[in-house]
Specification:
By secondary structure, the protein is an alpha/beta fold. It folds into two domains: 44 residues, no CATH class; 235 residues, Aldolase class I (TIM Barrel, Alpha-Beta Barrel), CATH 3.20.20.70. The chain has an eight-stranded mixed beta sheet with strand order 8-9-11-12-13-14-15-16. A three-stranded antiparallel beta sheet has the order 1-6-5, with no helix packed on it. α2 packs across α3 and α7 packs parallel to α8. The termini are far apart. The structure holds iron/sulfur cluster (2 copies). One iron/sulfur cluster (SF4) binds next to loops.
């Protein structure tokens, strides 16, 4: 546990500035993510140095296909998330902190870098859950990584606040941003979030010259209409038609066990729409 940097005091509460929720947190309470807690007027990161997963992953698994291809990323994550997606593959870790469950094993930024170098990795990936919520731990690790010649990668739902971008942006080399839908109501109903901050993050990352790739999990009946896919592809192309778009297949998961897997024909349709506007469209989970 460590005191957070990204927050401010507001009357007798604290306002977290790490993500676009900007939670106003009373004493002895946490924000939506469950990992940032107000103790007597100071905000603390409960998962600082407490990771729940660490793996040596191929960079293509992140997925990043156009950044350091053929290399490995030392991948770490903690419990907690600022979203509650009904299809979350990692719900056992992403939603745990909302029930007050904070777990994981202790590790320092120095130990992560040492392990990554020993394994021959070329980068550190902050992944599995949402890194914006444990960003102070990301920053301490990313600074050391950079000194040792390792790249830093965020695998994110894109809900970072503007303040968070200013805080971490210069240390980040690549991002894969989940672009879940072009509908605000889908973000609200299924993720407990909204669309605009995600669009803002994609633009900010591009303006900062961070390498970005986007991922969309195509879920039958939720985001698979021609119209929505067209809107998403157009939006990306207006920023940069060279941004790779990963279109991924849905399988029943978490609260969506009754929904069918995405038909291959739907993925092919999405790929065709994407290729009208974008140079790189990749199918995943097929
Ligand atoms: S990271 Fe986001 S969800 Fe968590 S406390 Fe801060 S503003 Fe709230
Ligand atoms: S943003 Fe990712 S980790 Fe968080 S709930 Fe959604 S799918 Fe799970």
């Amino acid at each position: 546990m460590k005191e957070c940097t990204l927050y401010k005091k507001e009357n007798n509460k604290v306002r977290c500035l790490a993500c676009a929720h900007k939670c106003l947190i009373s004493d002895n309470k946490t924000g939506i993510c469950g990992v940032r807690k107000n103790f007597k007027g100071k905000l603390y990161l409960l998962v600082y140095g407490k990771i729940v997963a660490e793996n040596i992953d191929s960079i293509e698994k992140k997925p990043l296909y156009h950044f350091l291809p053929g290399t490995y990323a030392y991948s770490i994550g903690t419990v907690g998330c600022n979203f509650r997606c009904s299809w979350c593959q990692n719900f056992d870790i992403s939603q745990a902190s909302k029930q007050g469950k904070i777990f994981g094993h202790d590790i320092s930024p120095e130990q992560i870098i040492e392990k990554a170098l020993k394994a021959g990795c070329k980068s550190i990936a902050y992944t599995y859950n949402e890194p914006a919520i444990f960003i102070e731990f990301v920053k301490d690790t990313a600074e050391l990584a950079r000194k040792k010649g390792l790249k830093n990668i965020l695998i994110t739902n894109g809900y970072l606040s503007k303040e968070n971008f200013e805080y971490i942006g210069d240390l980040i080399d690549a991002m894969n941003i989940d672009f879940k839908s072009f509908s605000d109501s889908v973000y609200k109903k299924y993720c407990g979030a909204s669309l605009k901050p995600v669009l803002d993050s994609i633009k900010r990352a591009h303006e900062k010259d961070i390498h970005i790739e986007l991922t969309t999990l195509i879920i039958p009946g939720i985001n698979d209409s021609d119209e929505e896919l067209e809107q998403m592809a157009k939006f990306i192309s207006k920023i940069d038609k060279n941004i790779p778009w990963h279109i991924s297949r849905f399988f029943p998961m978490y609260k969506m066990l009754n929904r069918s897997p995405t038909q291959i024909s739907t993925l092919k349709k999405a790929e065709k729409i994407g290729k009208k506007y974008l140079k790189y469209v990749h199918l995943g989970n097929v």
